[in-house]
What does this fold into?
Amino acid sequence: MKKFVLVIAFLVAGNASAQTYPGKPVRLVVPFPPGGGADIYARTIVPGVSKLLGQPIVVDNRPGSGGNVGAEHVSKADPDGYTILYGTNGTHAINHTLYKRTGFDAVKDFAPVSRMTQIALLVVTHPSVPANDMRDLVAYLKANPKTFFGSAGNGTTSHLAGEMFKTVAGVDMTHVPYKGGAPAMIDLIAGRVPLMIEIMGSAIPHAKAGKIKALAVTTAQRFPTLPEVPTIAEAAIPGFQMSAWDGIFTPAGTPRPVIDALNGAIRRTLEEPEVRNALLGRGAEPVPSTPEELGRHVAAELERWGKVVKASGASVD
It folds into this structure.
């Protein structure tokens, strides 16, 4: 009887806590370094979500192992809504095939809250590459096998985009991994690598400045802020489609009222014109969702990216 009373008391306390959420600042763990694309995307929504929740949101950057360090930290946090995760197709899809051990289960250890954005990638080359469209580029690569292509590192979205492109275009390129997208872009601008398929937010400023050439986007439709740039599918390879994505997660077991409060604040923030335009300007299209939709998306992406990683042969111990 005593045990039964304790259980009831625990449930009542948990329900009361959920109903008053949030009663203190919320910590948003971004499992990537400050100043990068993920960090910028996450911080873009923080002011709006914080205002709607009525509490500060503190960004806590915990980089390491492609996002695994920060994600594992959140997976083991108390499921009370005060430690939440900015997750990506890396932490919740790619890494579970790429790494022998991530330290967490993308499905069992998290409660999905909402998708944030779909992030386009851009095929970019150094101006010296004699290709002005994707058909030219495919012809150039077939005539010049083993052409180098840079990426943000082994198993990253930019690496796997290149591997997928190699397969469907029937070309042979040599991968050059860097320790991040920024140093890879520096070498592309300098001409030390001739080609990248990079997150659009990192590539747009340099393309608009004329330092590199933008040939195509990887999404199914042309991107709203770059309507003049065709998709790979329409320019050269019908059916080709690839995009990165992000979303917000809490530890598994978080009460539904807490998840609903976070979901509502995130969705309303992503619908704000200023926030939407800021994200679009960096190559990220807002796609807010229900928790269930994000859960289904993770399940599908685990399978899809797993196949790409296996085909690439990439592996990290």
Remarks:
- The chain is about 45% helix and 20% strand.
- The chain has two domains: 24-119+243-312, 121-235.
- The chain has a mean pLDDT of 91.
